[in-house]
Amino acid sequence: MRSIETLDELFLKVFMFNPCPMAISNIDDGKYIAVNDALLYILGYNKEDVIGKTSLELGIMDNSDRKKAIRLMKSQGRLRDFEILIRCKNNKPIHGIFNAEFITIQGQPYLLSVMTDITVKKQLEQDFIYLEKLNLISQMSAGISHEIRNPMTTVRGFLQFFMQKPAYAYHRNYFELMISELDRVNAIISDFLSITTSDPLNSAYTLQDLQELLEQLRPIIEANALEKRNRMLYCLANTPKIMINEKEIQQIILNLVRNGFDSMPVGGTLIIKTFLQENHVVLAIQDQGKGIDKAILQKLGTPFLTTKDYGTGLGLAVCYGIAHRHRAKINVTTSPQGTTFEVHFPLAQSDE
Question: CA 85, CA 141: separation in Å to the nearest integer?
Answer without folding.
Answer: 36
